[in-house]
Amino acid sequence: MAKTLIYPYQDAALPVEQRVGDLLRRMTLEEKVAQLGSRWIYEIADERGLNREWAQQRIAHGLGQVTRLAGGSSLGPIETAKLANQIQKFLIEETRLGIPALIHDECCSGFLANGATNFPQIIGVASTWAPELVEAMTRVIRRQMRAVGVHHGLAPVLDIARDPRWGRTEETFGEDPYLTTVMGLAYIRGLQGDDWSEGVMATGKHFVGYSAAEGGLNWAPAHITARELREVYLAPFEAAVRVARLASIMPAYHEIDGEPCSSSRRLMTDILRDEWGFEGLVVSDYMAIDQLRNYHKLARDKAHAAHLALGAGMDVELPSVDAYGQSLLEAVVAGDIPMEWIDRSVRRILTLKFAFGLFESPYVDPDAVSAVFDTEEQRNLAREIARKSLVLLKNEGNLLPLPKTLASIAVIGPNADS
Q1: Is 391 inside any structural domain?
Q2: pLDDT by residue for the chain (418 residues), tens digit each?
């Protein structure tokens, strides 16, 4: 049965701050902690759609986020939209307070989903030197994500890549802080849009210096001087927050000067919020909170890892409920973690859920999905970006332009016959 009682938080005419305050006051501890976590799509859905038994076991108190609705399944766009509606219907009609879930997916060089437009890798997009193309690209990504019920994109990557040994260089805008800043701002503008109720939350990552890892090794410590950190690595993030109103940030896996980014109050609170005025969500990289225990060896157990992360300013745990689950609940009950920390993060989560239109528009129209997937206009844009991304390093023997008298040209690769 749909809820018929009207509480202040359900009244769209009231200011968001008032609605959030009313809803927060009505929530139990279990319902609040549920907002701090996420569930993989395959934890609550199977090949037939939403698995009600799993849902009743795992999201009965609500849910903060759904992880990889499209990217974690093989569904096409229309089926993805239908599954999104099933999840939101369960949360709205069968949990006590009816709070919809944010749904996140990857979208670095296109919405990572079956049937979505595939754009060039971001290092290639950067080679166009055309921020207007970046913004046009992310407008396409925004329309496709929102059409199937996704509200949160885990991009752009704002890392400054200066070590070719690092394995994620292709996700970045390259080695220059200014170019990365300009392209990053365009990316965020296109994805979030002017009206957030129709936009997709952008996520600046990886905060910060992830690409400067020792030896180019993923997760390895970074050795960055204070001035270089400010002028090179923090600069694109600061602009994203101050200029583009970035909605979310993801701290990096690694550590700087012995301090893991995922437990750094200096980064997540002192610089990000107090200095720059960031008002959005800080979301963990996948499994990063428990890595404070099993990788960095800083936390003695999951509850301690949750204490370190939440206290430093980490609002949301991705991709699934772990450190921010039962161990966090028990730590709050025992008085080891202040309720104030829980309320602080839940308030931020609810504020963004209202801002991005989840309460007024929780459902999508599956019949309208096809119109925004794989259109001629989208393919032409992807082709234009690909053409302008090409960089000629050396024209040895005047090989280019190719003569029209050539009998054949070899086209090699997985998409050669596409």
Answers
A1: no
A2: 445 668 999 999 999 999 999 999 999 999 999 999 999 999 999 999 999 999 999 999 999 999 999 999 999 999 999 999 999 999 999 999 999 999 999 999 999 999 999 999 999 999 999 999 999 999 999 999 999 999 999 999 999 999 999 999 999 999 999 999 999 999 999 999 999 999 999 999 999 999 999 999 999 999 999 999 999 999 999 999 999 999 999 999 999 999 999 999 999 999 999 999 999 999 999 999 999 999 999 999 999 999 999 999 999 999 999 999 999 999 999 999 999 999 999 999 999 999 999 999 999 999 999 999 999 999 999 999 999 999 999 999 999 999 999 999 999 998 898 7
Q: What's the predicted TM-score (pTM) here? A: 0.95
Residues 6+ away with beta carbon under 8 Å from 24: 32, 343, 346, 347, 350
Q: Is residue 383 part of a domain?
A: no
Q: What is the DSSP letter of 163?
A: -
Q: Which domain holds residue 147?
A: 8-378
Structural domains counted in the chain: 1
- 28: domain CATH number? 3.20.20.300
| Active site residues per annotation | 285
Tokens 């996948």, residue located: 286
Please check whether residue 23 lies inside any domain of the structure. yes
Virtual torsion, Cα 410, 173, 69, 326, nearest 10 deg: 140
**Is 276 part of a structural domain of the chain?**
yes
Alpha-helix residue ranges (DSSP H) falling in 216-338: 226-228, 235-242, 265, 288-294, 302-312, 326-333
